[in-house]
Amino acid sequence: MSRILVTGGFGFIGSYICRSLVEKGHMLAVVDVLARPPNLNVLLKRRKGWSWRYATVYSEDIRKPNIMLRIFKEFRPEVVVHLAAVSSAVYARRHVRETVETNILGTYNLLRAAKMLHVERFVFVSSSMVYGDFIEEPVSEDHPLEPKEIYGISKLAGERLVRSFMGSPFVIVRPSAVYGPLDSGNRIVQRFVEAAKKGTVSEAWDVDERRLDFTYIEDTVDGIVLATQHPRADYGIFNITRGEGRTIRELIDTIKAYAPDWPLRLINRGAPMVRRGTLDISHARSILRYEPKYSLEDGLAEYWEKV
């Protein structure tokens, strides 16, 4: 059993991580600013229910360095799993300063505290957006890092800080297009599934050109937890995805199998801003023994039942 501090623990991915770690018997602390819109209160309560009674909870902002240091001194974590961030690329484009302060300076504050308190492993949850345009497929962890938007830039800056500043072992994971129950980040799968359930009109653009490596939340969590615990993960960088790029049209067709009358407007806008596709997960398979279980069809079937 380890003492694990999770930042962003009441977020979409973070709440699943906390549930998994609690079930495995670890002693948990959660740091989350809990700044959620009022209409998400019910969703937040559901997420809290997984870890609220079993964790030390700090309702604090990672942008406050002295508070982060105090928390680390109080809880004395052995492992840190860092998810707290501006996690939407769309939101990041509109709120650049907040993105820089949270994703870069906030990460520095945590690294500083982790280094001072001699944390044994720092797990940084980055993003496949650090690659920018995919110039080859599948994209391995050695692919050039040329992010094109502030979100990917901020995540790459976080990776650089972790690699250069953290004295003790670290792990970097790069998820992609995560979806599943309790999502509230306005990601494409959530938007489409909820619209199809309600029968409301949706717009989709460049459905044959745009491809994403859609990853069901349970697979994402399995990979991150393995990176948190596996003895061979130290200093590793891992793509944690399904390992299969699928088009937006394939996503739509899969959803329409459950809602054939879902009204949809298809728009042709030209080339996507960032060319994406399949990520190579062979490194995670080899080192972590990571093995995703959910195809897009399997994940959407479970999501549809639970949404």
Q: What features would you describe in this structure?
A:
By secondary structure, the chain is of the alpha/beta class. The protein has a single domain, classed as Rossmann fold (3-Layer(aba) Sandwich), CATH 3.40.50. It has eleven helices and 13 strands. The chain has helices at residues 12-23, 41-48, 65-75, 89-94, 96-116, 150-165, 188-198, 217-229, 248-256, 282-288, 296-306, and strands spanning 3-7, 27-31, 55-58, 79-82, 121-125, 170-175, 178-179, 202-205, 211-212, 215-216, 236-240, 246-247, 264-267. The strands form four sheets. Strands 3-2-1-4-5-6-11 form a seven-stranded parallel beta sheet, with helices on both faces. A two-stranded parallel ribbon has the order 7-10. Strands 8-13 form a two-stranded parallel ribbon. Helix 1 (12-23) links the parallel strand 1 (3-7) and strand 2. Helix 1 (12-23) packs across helix 8 and helix 7 packs parallel to helix 9 (248-256). The chain is globular. It starts with a strand and ends with a helix. The mean pLDDT is 92.
Mean pLDDT, as a whole number?
92
* Fraction of residues in β-strands: 15-25%
The N- and C-terminal alpha carbons lie at a distance of: 33 Å
Global shape: globular
How many strands appear in the DSSP assignment? Answer: 13
Chain oligomer state: single chain
Order of helices and strands: EHEHEHEHHEHEEHEEEHEEHEHH
Q: Tell me what the CATH architecture is.
A: 3-Layer(aba) Sandwich
Number of helices: 11
Give me the CATH superfamily: NAD(P)-binding Rossmann-like Domain
At the first level of CATH, the class is Alpha Beta
Query: Quick one: biggest sheet?
Result: 7 strands, parallel
Poorly predicted segments:
none
Helix fraction bin: 40-55%
- Strand order across the biggest sheet? 3-2-1-4-5-6-11
Class from helix and strand fractions? alpha/beta
Number of domains: 1
Radius of gyration: 19 Å
CATH topology: Rossmann fold
